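Reopening: MerR family transcriptional regulator still failing for me.
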Amino acid sequence: MEELARLAGITVRTLRFYRERKLIPPPRREGRVAWYDDQHLARLRTITALLERGHTLNGIAELAEAFDSGRGVGDLLGMEVPTEETPVRLTPEELADHFAGEVTPENLAVALDLGYLGVDGEEIVHISRRLLEVSSALVREGIPLGEVLRTGAEVRTHADALADLFADLILRHAPEETLHRLRPLARSVVDAELSLALDRRLRKRDNPM
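Support: Ran it again with your exact input. Result attached.
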């Protein structure tokens, strides 16, 4: 216990408190000896990262219970299953391979916060194959995963605003059931406008005057 607390950068008293709150799973016991492993250390570091991001211990306890019971974190955070995005099931090792060792407790905390990751038994579920492929491609290009996640959070804010604009437009002139049928049109508009915006950005870079 003392060694685990030291590696996690917390006190033994704090570790005992986390155990009492069931924030970490119990150790493996051999007689009177309690053995902790890397999973316990990773959990403690993730708890620290979540606390630094402003999560409460009660909220972290719910996340920990979701991991241990196999409930989806996306469901826990109130996110509905996406209707068009394809979730991806991964082992922890496969997730780490996608991001070249950048699956740190801090980045994991951000991904949990955004609802990108969920848990189903011993597997990790990424909410979107497209987002997984794009983010891993950016990391392979040398962009830190933390920066990718922070940008993703900003993009989500703008995407929510765009979705509201499109929904308001449709619902002013058509019944609500039309919204789902016409959503491909919204994606096409956003894709075209983003492409044109990137064109303008590149022209501005090449011709600053």
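Residues 145-173 form the longest helix (29 residues). If you still see a failure, please send the error message rather than a screenshot.
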